[in-house]
Amino acid sequence: MTIAGSMQVRGLAIIDIIRHAAAAHPTREIVSRNVDEPLWRYDYVRCFERVARCAHMLVRLGIGGGDRVSSLAWNTHRHFELFYAVPGIGAVLHTANPRLPDDHLVFTINHAASRVLLIDANMVPIVERLRSRLGVVEHVIVLADADRTPAGYAGYEALIADEPTTYAWPDLDEHCGAFLCYTSGTTGDPKGVLYSHRSVVLHAMAAGLSGAFGFSAFDVVMPCSSLYHATAWGLPFAGTINGVKFVLPGDRMDAASLHELIVNEGVTFSGGVPTIWTMYLDYIARTAAGPGTLKRIVIGGSAVPRDMAVTFDRMGVTVQQLWGMTETSPLGVVATPTPALAELGREAEQERIWTRQGRMQFGIEIRIVDDEGQPLPHDGETSGALMVRGPWVIERYYRADATACDADGWFDTGDIATIDREGFMRITDRKKDVIKSGGEWISSIDLENAAAGCPGVKVAAVAGVHHPKWEERPILLIEPHDGATLTEDHVVAFLAARVTRWWLPDRILFGPVPLTATGKIDKKVIRETHRDILRDG
Ligand code: ADP
Prior knowledge:
Layout (H helix, E strand, L loop, with lengths): L14 H10 L4 E6 L2 E7 H17 L7 E5 L4 H12 L3 E4 L6 H11 L3 E4 L4 H7 L8 E4 L11 E2 H5 L16 E6 L9 E5 H11 L12 E4 L6 H4 L1 H7 L3 E4 L6 H11 L3 E4 L1 H14 L8 E5 L5 H9 L3 E7 L6 E4 L4 H4 L3 H10 L2 E2 L5 E5 L14 E6 L21 E9 L4 E7 L4 E3 L2 E3 L1 H9 L4 E11 L3 E10 L7 H9 L10 E4 L12 H7 L8
Parallel strand pairs: 1-11, 3-4, 3-5, 4-8, 5-6, 6-7, 10-11, 10-12, 12-13, 13-14, 24-25
Antiparallel strand pairs: 1-2, 8-9, 14-15, 16-20, 17-18, 18-19, 19-20, 21-22, 23-24
Helix pairs in contact: 1-2, 2-3, 7-9, 10-11
Bound molecules: adenosine-5'-diphosphate (ADP).
């Protein structure tokens, strides 16, 4: 038996985040680089007004509650406006990933059944190529000002120009869909994850906490994870709740362009996948530039090479690792310090922070289980399948009939991990990437991490391929830095001092490392390309 609480029943709504920022942080800025346009600069009040204009425009086009709208856009202020306007009217924003192969891109927009497609100007060639296959799309709108809207297209600025700057935002059921994000579909078709208003707002509140991003209004945040990839880790919401200044880099994610923004706009915090920071560190080393005002970088999506964290630390920039996936909105865990760790001294503390994917935080339960689904101890040694549960974890894929979870609501992440007594989680591998050699496991992540520390290595990728005697053996593909000369002997000598003998790769290859649409090492391609390389042992 329970009795009803006597508090207000007010649903969690995404629009309330920007409404709050406009009221509580009215003059805090959002600065945006846009495709072939001058730098854009405004504050939360003006942003909220344009969100209202955009909402009116969408309603005028016939978009209403439950309708889907797709974006094909970079990290810009107009894309940011869609993040509030679309869910604000009860519709769903599907953030399409322009780096997906054509078939997958077409699949996601058609699967979402989006009636409107809003694109950046340099996406026009993609849309022209695929238009005939996008039967459901009724309107294509280019996110550009009137002068830069290509002939034959409707332009966003022209469409919103005469709309009112306020909107009577409807009360929505907090469980209704708001964002539709697809996994990149490394196996089979991409799968849709439909975030709700409730999941997005709870995730945003939790992401800003000190056990995660730890935001305040003094932060200047430059998201280098894409708005189209799991809502850029929810930064547009977690940052806005806390009134941070946003710096949106647009489509120019090269190191020089990012560095210019960091210095000119006083960026203190950024986040993105390791490949971006590899390029950035290379640029810093070549130009002898300093990190400007940058204080903290959260890196995730793939394991953070230890050397990357050490190099940033020497520059006075703190690195924290994040683990998450589209199915977890995407924040799972972030590696943040604890008093118990601090007592062990700075070196031990850093070691733990740099080599762990993150630490348990409220709202997302994590555990590891064996092959029979039995829970395993949190001793930092035992590894098992990583399971997650919580209010911003997927229940079922979009349009799927069956739940994606077990009977107790746990979602199997497909990752293998250890968890220690302090709640730190360490990913040892993705289930499908782990290398089974002679009945033992080799962690491709640990081997990559060791190889990435070898001077001259830009990216190191390890994959398991068939071996007639051992079942599988590791091969290592190295993409060297420009101008670096690396030999197989040199790399083997470097690794031999760092990993056990039987982990040493059977082949070391040099060449470009293939990446997925979300900037991760594409091991499937490496495995397929070199499938027979160890055929003769
Ligand atoms: P995809 O790239 O397949 O579209 P996600 O972006 O959702 O999908 O990727 C989630 C996966 O990325 C996780 O299951 C995990 O394997 C990997 N991942 C994310 N963060 C980390 C990290 N810090 N270290 C190692 N692996 C990570």
